[in-house]
Amino acid sequence: MGDLTPTQTAPGLHIIKPSPDAPATGSAVCHCGASATATGDAQVQLLVQGWEANHGSAHSQRGK
């Protein structure tokens, strides 16, 4: 499997939690230029919430 880390040319949200005892890590890059990373389950959850609220599919819904 290739590298799934989002980039400016391939934006998205990528979350990793290798085991139940390991902390989650996440990264996000939006086509608008915003990017963020997070480490730890709580911080990754906030990253996902922010992505859903402000980036990704939220951009296509704002014009409706």
Number of helices: 2
Helix content: 25-40%
Q: How would you classify the helix and strand content by structural class?
A: alpha+beta
| Fraction in beta strands | 15-25%
Overall shape: globular
What's the SSE pattern?
A: EEEHH
What integer is the average pLDDT?
86
Note poorly predicted spans.
none
Secondary structure tally: strands: 3
Description:
With 64 residues, the chain is α+β, with helices and mostly antiparallel strands. The chain is 31% helix and 23% strand. The longest helix is centred in the last third of the chain and has 14 residues, at 41-54.
Features:
globular, three-stranded antiparallel sheet, alpha+beta, 64 residues
Summarize this entry quickly.
The protein has 64 residues and is α+β, with helices and mostly antiparallel strands.
What's the SSE blueprint?
Layout: E1 12-16, E2 25-29, E3 35-39, H1 41-54, H2 57-62
